[in-house]
């Protein structure tokens, strides 16, 4: 429990659909507003996906990202982290398009191919706002999220070596940490490494204290002192495992991409800033401090917001 804690806010993602919450940001205005209020609440890093503003469907079109990226950068010093994950139903070239156009300080990078099952969500709703939503969710029963070793090397080389982008390495299971360790030995990944432990996605490791301690022990064994870690837990597990991560010396990620509720009962969170404020209060009541965007840049050796392409 030393040092300052980086809060990452993941605003919209590609898991939840507009039917599930009226507060999920979809349009460029929605995403910009919620990004700025989340940053004001204490988020040092903003993890961003885009949506088609007409339908709310996950989008990897560069023009959809450019509808909010420059506006956020002009109004906030927060680190902008662009997804290379898109959704499991997008091809690699499609998923990489916005990051290649924007050349950001950070990108997320899923460290392996996996079953990514969000189809159980479809059973919770009967009345859909858009016709694409239910088929999109149910399709994940027979779709593999593809990030092969070749895909990972391509992303590390193109974005990392090519543009100086650093990564939030998303590890959904222990084998993903082994992949990080392999590329560290190969020299394609350089310290400091920023690992995001992702718990609670069907197809990955479950969201439990035992799983989190196992992932941390595995990273300690394979990566030594080369890494920092953050904790992301899906749904109702979000706050308790993020809190546990902070106690263990890690950083935290919250946001409507990962959980739509307040965490107190089943009430919908009114916006992303609500979750940021809540985890910030927990962190500070434990006697810890949150990191500013500039402190996060220093901890993670980021290139700076002046070296992006938006």
Plain-language structure description:
One of its GO terms (molecular function) is metal ion binding. Keywords: Metal-binding, Transferase, Zinc. This is 3-keto-5-aminohexanoate cleavage protein. Pfam families: BKACE. The protein is an alpha/beta fold and 310 residues long. The protein has one domain (7-307): TIM Barrel, CATH 3.20.20.70. It has 11 helices and 12 strands. The chain has helices spanning 28-41, 62-65, 69-75, 92-102, 133-138, 149-163, 174-186, 209-223, 238-247, 272-285, 293-300, and strands at residues 7-10, 45-48, 50-51, 58-59, 79-82, 106-110, 114-115, 144-145, 166-171, 193-199, 227-233, 251-254. The strands form 3 sheets. The chain has an 8-stranded parallel beta barrel with strand order 1-2-5-6-9-10-11-12, surrounded by 8 helices. Strands 3-4 form a two-stranded antiparallel ribbon. A two-stranded antiparallel sheet has the order 7-8. The N and C termini lie far apart (36 Å). The model has no long low-confidence stretch (mean pLDDT 97).
